[in-house]
Amino acid sequence: MTDISVPTLGESVTEATVGQWLKSAGDSVKRDDVLVELETDKVSVEVSAPEDGVLSEIVANVGDTVEIGALLGRLNAGNGAAKAAPAKAAAEPATQTKAAAAPAPAAKGGALTDVAVPTMGESVAEGTLSTFLKKVGDSVKKDETIAEIETDKVALEVPSPADGTIAELVVSEGDSVTPGAVIARISAGAGAAAAPAPAAAPESAPAAAPSRTAAAPVSPSVRRISTEAGIDPAAIPGTGRDGRATKGDALAYVNSAPKASTAVAQAKAPRDLGPREERVRMTRLRQTIARRLKEAQDSAAMLTTFNDVDMGAIMDLRKKHQDSFVAKHGIKLGFMSFFVKACVNALKEVPSVNAEIDGTDIIYKNYYDIGVAVGTDKGLVVPVVRDSDDLSLAGIEKGIADLGKRARDGDLTIGDMQGGTFTISNGGIYGSLMSTPILNPPQSGVLGMHRIEQRPVAVNGQVVIRPMMYLALSYDHRIVDGKEAVTFLVRVKEALEDPERMLLEV
Question: According to the UniProt entry, which residue ranges have a biased composition of type Low complexity (predicted)?
């Protein structure tokens, strides 16, 4: 007897809702067959069978809230699986049994190999197949890129698992795909024939899926999909237990439903284009950027405080030591490393800016993983410099340079952008004089840098021209008080105007 338990659901996620059982008690299952779907407030998680067997018992029912490690069901492993399958087949109509027993035709060139969607990273449950780089009939080599998948964070390349010929493309460009889903099939060996035609549809059409009643609960993933598409979740026909709409139902409905099927959709119906206009679908990354920025505004009590800093001391220090710095470390000494160091020092003094809200709790983070906003052709990404407090100026500069290059080349991974505790955004490289940066949830603070401008300021009773920069700190007022925010920004200003004291930690 093997227990089927709730797996780890991702960072800061402690519970889920049982969304749909894909197997019933008594069903025979194979290893890695999906048994049940769990819904969290962030993602949908599939729980698979750890081995061959028979699903002997379902403990957690659809709609139940379960915690990590909770028992979902039990599996009888071993020969029970082989015995259960024929018994179930005998109870089905003869025509269905016969059809199921008919073996699928094999490709003439060799056995078919599935091309599956790889794991896309922690908390990433789906992506969009943006481009097929190969078509049916094309020859491919092992590890050659077949397709590109775009998630809400990064673009992923799907490599060929074997040498062969593309026999079938299972999905189309623009389709949503999940980890493990088959997107294509390869016929092993050279000159493989195209994939066999799909089996004929059964003579009798299946019964229509039951409509979900208004009283049925709406899972988090269905709610998110319907909100993004501008449709009423109650209008989605459900195929789950008691007419409950599943994530698959929502995606299918969004892709096929008429644009004006609901009043909400009518209000968001696309307008007609003029002769000098064009319509381009937003990428998944851009959609996610828009959604997350709006969520930050809606959920956080966001406020911005400003200050300015005299950059003369850092500019003189860079000018004095730049050549020797490059000779020793192989990289230029920029401004960003000073800002990272200054922010880390200020975060140590004002820990609430380095914390996050989790329900009714505050999580204080005793580490300093600083996100650095990078603009790319596809949108803004925020890779993270890990353990910035332990890095030298050269280490920070090298880390930022590497992350920036990989961001522009599209080579960042999910892990490169997760877990940041505070963010620095440099609009000054684009000429920005002043801005109010938006938080990167669940972080509670973001520092905006701006362009350096020669301005007249009063120093010791005299008006002098100094290289000045405006700084902006946006913060979540639910967790950071105004006094703390101002203190943080003043500490950053002091460290930048006297970098030697900062570096000497005095």
Answer: 202-221
